[in-house]
Amino acid sequence: MNAETVVAQDRFLLVTVSTADAPPATRVRVWRKLRSLGALYLQQSACLLPDRDLVRRQVARLLASVRADGGTARQLTVDVTDPAEYAQLVAEFNAERDTEYGEVVERAPGLLAELEKETARGNATYAEVEESEADLERFDKWLAKIAARDYFGAPGHVMAREAVERCRTALTAFENAALAAQADTHPADQATTSALPASATLRAVE
Q1: In this predicted model, which residue has the larger pLDDT, 5 or 22?
Q2: Percent with pLDDT over 70 in the chain
Q3: DSSP collapsed to 3 states, the chain
Q4: Is the dihedral of CA 64, 48, 33, 148 positive or negative?
Q5: Rounded to the nearest 5°, which phi and psi values hold at 17?
Q6: What is the rounded distance in angstroms from the CA atom of residue 189 to the CA atom of residue 170?
Q7: I want to staple 34 with a disulfide (CB 3.0 to 4.6 A). Which of 39, 149, 171, 182 is the partner?
Q8: Predicted TM-score (pTM) of this structure
Q9: Strands 46-50 and 40-43: what pairing?
């Protein structure tokens, strides 16, 4: 996505919040919500977000709650007409998302190592499959949350998605090993197991 294409379509929301006269919990709630939206902070109490419908509605609700708690809040819509400045803002948004994607890439090998360890120990069991499926599901949800605030297509998404897909592939192989181990343990049930449709076997979380 290049700056020339986006400048004519996207403006920014300039959000300022002061919770000095609000309960401490309000400050925490504001920080968490703006972080979940992927806000780019210009200074401590002022940040930018792309002017998208969903973002605008969520910000409006947040600021209304701040005012109800005794704080002050404002939302202004601004145009960034300088292409270089716009490109710099996009780069800063992308840099923050790339940092988050990098955390996914950094953590994913831990699941791969766990699967390798359990395979080497001969511990490919249904219990281990289910535990690893839960881990993979957490990776999927984590990646989805980052992608939801990745407004400008940060390049780090590719490596993060590939890292999670490697985990998915490894988990499928681990599941197959668990099925094979069960067949070896219960040879009398092998014919029945082989007759089951593919839909009856465990799958990695999609």
Answers
A1: 22
A2: 84
A3: CCHHHHHCCCCEEEEEEECCCCCHHHHHHHHHHHHHHCCEEEECCEEEEECCHHHHHHHHHHHHHHHHCCCEEEEEEECCCCHHHHHHHHHHHHHHHHHHHHHHHHHHHHHHHHHHHHHHCCCCCHHHHHHHHHHHHHHHHHHHHHHHCCCCCCCHHHHHHHHHHHHHHHHHHHHHHHHHHHHHHCHHHHHHHHHCCHHHCCCCCC
A4: positive
A5: -140, 135
A6: 26
A7: 39
A8: 0.80
A9: antiparallel
Cβ neighbours of 135 (radius 10 Å) = 19
- The C-alpha atoms of residue 88 and residue 199 are separated, in whole angstroms, by 49
Taking the C-alpha atoms of residue 137 and residue 206, their distance in angstroms, rounded to an integer, is 8
> What integer best gives the mean pLDDT of the chain?
86
Q: Compute the CA torsion angle 44, 32, 63, 61 (nearest 10 deg).
A: 160
* Structure token digits, residue 102: 């990098």
How do residues 78-113 score in pLDDT, each as one tens digit? 999 999 999 999 999 999 999 999 999 999 999 999
